[in-house]
Amino acid sequence: MDSNEGRESNGVVSERNGAAVPAKQQLDGKDTLRYANILRSRNKFDDALQLYNCVLEKDDTNVEALIGKGICLQAQSLPRRAIECFREAVKIDPGNACALTYCGMIYKDEGQLVDAAEAYQKARRADPSYKPAAEFLAIVLTDLGTSLKLAGNTEEGIQNIVKLWKLTATMRLLITTLA
After folding, report:
1. Which member of 11, 26, 27, 100 has the greatest number of CB atoms within 10 A?
2. Domain spans in the chain, listed from the N-terminal domain onward
């Protein structure tokens, strides 16, 4: 059967009984996930969210769907629900640098700079080649130092930075670069 047979140009697939069903309802799991990612990339968060939920109804351990759902929720200004998705993804795949980085982004947005730095550092340890984690870590460390300096609380700032400094050699390299 030709891959385009039965498909109309308006994105509707004809059923045998003559009724038309939106194409996205007839997609299998991988196709549904791909289509959801495309919708999300086009800022169609409500539609993408529905598809991620369909994938998760069939497989609640699908890390990519959890991350996609979290990104949609974050884009809709629902950080609490978004972070639940990212945390669930991390429970399933503790080394998922993407999920850890998105956790850090939400922490940073909520002003929890130390928690954000720790999440980014976990992401760096999970995948040292994942550049967003390194970039966001550098930004949050700068923000942390600036906010503590402006608040006149340099002693606490020094203690926090020393605590972070001790995490890994990679962290020390980033802090030295910032100084």
Report:
1. 100
2. 25-93, 94-179
Cα–Cα distance list, 169 to 9, 120, 138, 175 (Å): 56, 15, 14, 10
For residues 78 and 71, what is the distance between their CA atoms, to the nearest angstrom? 10
pTM over 0.85: no
Contact 121, 171 (CB under 8 A): yes
Each residue's pLDDT tens digit, 83-125: 999 999 999 999 999 999 999 999 999 989 889 999 999 999 9
Task: Give me the mean pLDDT over the 70-74 stretch.
Answer: 97
CATH of 25-93 among 3.30.1130.10, 1.25.40.10, 3.40.50.10140, 1.10.10.10: 1.25.40.10
The yes-or-no verdict on residue 161 having pLDDT over 50 is yes
Q: Which two tokens stand for residue 28?
A: 């299998």
| CA 31 centroid distance within chain | 20
CATH architecture of 94-179: Alpha Horseshoe (1.25)
Domain 25-93 matches domain 94-179 at the CATH topology level: yes
**Number of residues that this document lists for the chain:** 179
